Amino acid sequence: MQPAVPDYLDDGAWFHGSPSELEVLRPGSTITRCRAVAEAFSHKPRTVGIDLRIGDGEPTGSLQVTHDGTLPGLLYVVDEPVTTSDVHPHPNSSFPHGALEWVTDRPLRLRLIARLPA
């Protein structure tokens, strides 16, 4: 069973962003179902901001991500199934509405899908 992620944060795959070339993600690393968040983290920022539009008390799916990273980034997709036994919610996430950052509990294979300019 896959971890529950709200539709407005789910881009259909698990992503990891890093400025480093990787093939396998170590346990304790962070992944997300939100591609824009992984893209931001790929630039190794000190701060990341999330602006999630709310309508009638519910998120509308309009998400804007800002960051102060300056490195070229690499965007990866997790290249194997991820279940509830493979990840847990990030205990120190500062993002609103939860389910945005997950911590890996085992090594996960990655596949590079994009090179992102600084």
Topology record:
Elements: E1 15-18, E2 24-25, E3 30-31, H1 35-41, E4 48-55, E5 58-67, E6 73-78, E7 87-89, E8 102-104, E9 108-116
Antiparallel strand pairs: 1-6, 2-9, 3-8, 4-5, 6-9, 7-8
Description:
Helix content is 6%, strand content 40%. It is mainly beta. The chain has a single domain (7-116), classed as ADP-ribosylation fold. A 4-stranded antiparallel β-sheet has the order 1-6-9-2. The chain has a 3-stranded antiparallel β-sheet with strand order 3-8-7, with no helix packed on it. Strands 4-5 form a two-stranded antiparallel ribbon. It is globular, with a radius of gyration of 14 Å. The mean pLDDT is 88.
Name given to the CATH architecture: Alpha-Beta Barrel
The whole-angstrom Rg is 14 Å
The level 1 CATH classification is Alpha Beta
> How would you describe the shape?
globular
DSSP E strands, number: 9
Major sheet size, sense and barrel closure: 4 strands, antiparallel
Secondary-structure-derived class: mainly beta
Strand adjacency order, main sheet: 1-6-9-2
Strand content: 35-45%
Give the mean pLDDT: 88
How many structural units, i.e. domains? 1
